[in-house]
Write a structure and sequence with these properties.
Layout: E1 2-8, H1 13-23, E2 29-36, H2 41-48, E3 52-55, H3 58-61, H4 65-73, E4 79-82, H5 91-96, E5 101-105, H6 120-128, E6 133-140, E7 150-157, H7 164-187
Parallel strand pairs: 1-2, 1-4, 2-3, 4-5
Antiparallel strand pairs: 5-6, 6-7
Helix pairs in contact: 1-7, 6-7
Enzyme class: transferase
Function: Catalyzes the transfer of a formyl group from 10-formyltetrahydrofolate to 5-phospho-ribosyl-glycinamide (GAR), producing 5-phospho-ribosyl-N-formylglycinamide (FGAR) and tetrahydrofolate.
EC number: 2.1.2.2
Length: 190
Amino acid sequence: MLNIAVLVSGGGSNFQAIIDKINDGKLPCKIDCVIADRKCYGLERGSSNGIKTYLLDRKELKKNLSKEIDTILEGKVDLIVLAGFLSILDSEFTKKWSKKIINIHPSLLPKFGGPGMYGIKIHQAVIAAGEKESGCTVHYVDAGVDTGEIIYQEKVSVLENDTPETLQKKVLEIEHRLLPQAIMDIAEGN
């Protein structure tokens, strides 16, 4: 069984999607812990599901954040899942955990990725650019920001009457399905 750690910075709805799939017996893995880089609802989701939680304040730890995460996870997990984690992991960490860290990003990378592209900002940029489609990407994490090898992408149409909020909702529905699917495939060795 695959042991995973989930890293969050916000509400943790993708984290909840993983928990639900595990509880339904549809995802053969165990969540060892959830780590947040700021106080957030994702930690409450972990606690209420009996999962170990860690708060590593990014403002206090600064450049030592990745080192602290590594200390917690060393020898305990097979895969690190970034589910709305906003801090950038350092290159030493991403090299050590190469092909063992995945991220979900709410755009069709390489479009609308990189520093500063997160949350509603992405959907605002997609609409401002006049894109006809958007979606989400599950990718391996490397030393760049949103530059790792793509595992999965799924598209949604951007309609004329879409707002950043309606587009975000459509993309999030796909994220909740695609991230657990990527974890399942990795657990099965695919």
